[in-house]
Write a structure and sequence with these properties.
With 382 residues, this protein is of the alpha+beta class. The chain has a domain at 2-194 and 375-380: Ribosomal Protein S5, domain 2, CATH 3.30.230.10. The protein has eleven helices and twelve strands. The chain has helices at 2-9, 87-100, 122-137, 144-159, 166-173, 215-234, 247-256, 261-283, 290-303, 310-321, 347-362, and strands at residues 16-27, 37-53, 58-63, 68-73, 106-112, 178-183, 189-193, 201-211, 326-330, 335-343, 367-371, 378-380. Strands 1, 2, 3, 4, 5, 6, 7 and 12 form an eight-stranded mixed beta sheet that branches. It is globular. Bound molecules: alpha-D-galactopyranose (GLA).
Length: 382
Amino acid sequence: MKEKLKEFFGNIEKVRGFRAPGRVNLIGEHTDYHLGYVLPCAINKYFYFYLKENKTKKIRIYSENFSQSFEFSIDKIEYNNDYPWTNYLQGVLKEIKEKVGDIPGFDGYISSEIPIGAGLSSSAAYEISVSYGLKEYFQLPLNLIDIVKLSQRAENEFVGARCGIMDQFISAFGKKDYALLLDTRSLEYEYIPFDIKSKDLELVIVDTKVKHSIAGEGYSKRREEGEKALEILKNYLPINSLRDLDEEGFILSQKVLPDPLKRRVEHVYKENIRVLNFVDALKENKWEELDKYMVESHNSLRYLYEVTCEELDFLFEKAHEFYAFTSRMTGGGFGGSTINLVPSKMLNLWCQKIKESYKLRFGFPPDILILEVADGVGEIEL
Ligand code: GLA
């Protein structure tokens, strides 16, 4: 890496490097934008951002993954259709400018080892590495929560993807060997011990390698359905989000809402409870209960929220058939990945069987990643 950086920056004096991790979500899916609970952990796959002040008003950025350079003035931030990868950076800069004023120009080098489209939040890691790196380098008066919020806004408003806050939050706040219970309404959080090695388990991500074209559209559609359901329920209940539903409210929702809205609400209501049950099981060291909640979550995403797909359902079923400790889809759905905990001693055989059966069914093998639970954003030594 040093050689590549020398080539780009001339010399690496004054260059600093930052990295932010991708994430997997253990449970609490499609709950964050309803202000509910999520339980993600950060993974040891990172987005890297290196920078050096250049004493101009220009930003010169190079993407290793795309082998492309792009230059723009800090005064002229605009959405770019020809270089879509620059929009995450531009969106973050726009938010930073609005919050703390102008920042100096810089040369930047970005590279990512998080597969794109696998549902591991490469875009949140991009935003967090850049916003955190800029804050540290230029000593901007921002804290970690500011970084998270402005990164989410950049994605929502500039890039145009209406994600919740989970991915940016965990990329910033992740902790090695812990999952993070986040209440997305209050932003209160708690680290929950999640030391899989002590249980002789491996964290395995199986990437379907498909991204169904309805992914972005399907995600927004689910959000809109949630908003519609909320509007109707507000006629009956004093609530501001689906998260505010208590048991009585939930029972009422099932009487007054039409299908599919009532199924969407059922998912959100029960998924929030599952997150808390899952956390209790972890805290009480009752790992044998985890699979039950994971299976319920997957089936709820399949039949009630309807965001899985053939490939995800197939992997979920095969994972269990080949004796995974637990498995379910993770992330937004409509493609992307499953998260699996697999007994260490069966790892190779399990991966081989999953690969073979998936290939036989769909004609190409999935990608398999064996991951560790990692720390959130930070500076790296050059
Ligand atoms: C995507 C979004 C998150 C969250 C998940 C579903 O990853 O970026 O905010 O909504 O989908 O749980």
